[in-house]
Specification:
- There is one protein chain.
- By secondary structure, this protein is an alpha+beta fold.
- 61% of the residues lie in helices and 15% in strands.
- It contains nine helices and ten strands.
- Helix 3 packs antiparallel against helix 8 and helix 5 runs parallel beside helix 7.
- The N terminus is likely disordered.
Length: 360
């Protein structure tokens, strides 16, 4: 197994191991307050439901603007859903919809967890004892990465259909990158010993056996050599031109193969920008019908719209890096193929002259 194949296998194995590790940590990670632990009404299905608070931690000594997500919130202007922090009602609360609340948490001088209570006008409520943390959340690096992944997965659905299209392109791009790594192997494109075998055969004038050897191999280099062997009865210039034309076609095929990664790297950020523009159009349409805290609603809507641009860049940048890495491999392979092709062209021309002289 050569280096490219080893890299592909290692990458695939790493993905499997990381997925297993994330699953194990998810099962063992401590409660971070994402799930409610107390419901104050027997009719829990009709009461408020807590899903997440974003961000889930903030700096000490500063007020923090958060978004509370869930279900069954009341957006009535006269009697909206209330939010309490450690039992104290928050004055700056805007119920955007039945699934989203914008709130400003007051500053705290000391680090630690705080409890959030979401209470509807009918006094049905849900309490989350460890919902928000002042100061960075303690825990290992892997736990922190897992929390970030959970947070991103919740934001993912806010981007709408565009996010799913970008996700599909990212999966296709990764699969194509692994395929190109396996395909662009020196041993497959420029087989060891083929040039020496063909040179030895044509030097003896055995063009028939040399042609069979090239037809069995079916690599780009063998096709270049085969083009020259089939023109062995013509002038050295025509032989070189035939091999050069075949080499150009093989080079174009290699560049075309890796160009799909470049396309993904260009298209995904544009799709992200398209999703952002659509999201902002929707936000401004909603803002025209909103009453009250227009700036808060506008800021929340724009932040949602920008998720698609961020995700498009997250996919597009690695795709372009992968493309330029493969492009470097292709350039090196083509350079080596040209060198061996020149040697084969000289050998075929010399063998053809020797065969012609022997016949005369």
């Amino acid at each position: 197994m050569n280096r490219s194949a080893a890299i592909a296998c290692t990458l695939a194995l790493s993905i499997v191991l990381l997925a297993g590790a994330a699953t194990a940590v998810a099962e063992q990670a401590p409660d971070t307050g994402d799930e409610p632990v107390q419901q104050s009404s027997d009719a829990a299905g009709s009461g408020p439901v807590f899903d997440a608070v974003e961000p889930h931690w903030g700096e000490i000594g500063r007020p923090v603007h958060v978004v509370i997500r869930g279900a069954n919130f009341v957006a009535d202007i006269d009697a909206p859903t209330l939010v309490l922090l450690d039992g104290v009602e928050l004055p700056e609360v805007t119920v955007v919809s039945d699934s989203e609340i914008l709130a400003t948490l007051p500053q705290q001088p000391m680090p630690g967890w705080t409890a959030l209570e979401i209470r509807n006008p009918d006094n049905q409520s849900v309490t989350v004892p460890r919902a928000f943390h002042y100061g960075p959340v303690p825990g290992s690096f892997l736990q922190g990465m897992l929390l970030q992944f959970r947070s991103f997965s919740k934001r993912f659905f806010l981007g709408g259909t565009t996010m799913w299209i970008i996700l599909v392109l990212s999966i296709l791009g990764l699969a194509w990158f692994l395929h190109c790594l396996a395909y662009l192997r020196t041993s497959a494109l420029l087989p060891d010993g083929l040039s020496n075998q063909v040179v030895a055969l044509v030097s003896r004038g055995d063009f028939g056996e040399a042609q069979k050897a090239c037809e069995r191999n079916k690599s780009p280099l063998s096709r270049v050599a085969l083009a020259g062997i089939r023109r062995s009865g013509e002038s050295p210039q025509r032989i070189a031109e035939a091999m050069e034309a075949t080499g150009s076609r093989e080079s174009a095929h290699l560049y075309q193969k890796i160009s799909y990664l470049s396309n993904i790297g260009v298209i995904t950020p544009m799709l992200g920008l398209f999703g952002t523009v659509l999201g902002m159009i929707i936000v401004f349409d909603q803002l025209a019908n909103e009453q009250g805290a227009h700036q808060i609603v506008l800021a929340a809507g724009i932040s949602k719209a920008l998720y698609t641009t961020a995700f498009g860049l997250v996919v597009g940048i690695p795709a372009m890096c992968a493309y330029y890495y493969l492009k470097g491999k292709v350039v090196r392979l083509i350079t080596d193929m040209e060198e061996e092709g020149e040697e084969l062209a000289r050998a075929v021309a010399a063998g053809a002259e020797k065969r012609s002289a022997a016949r005369n």
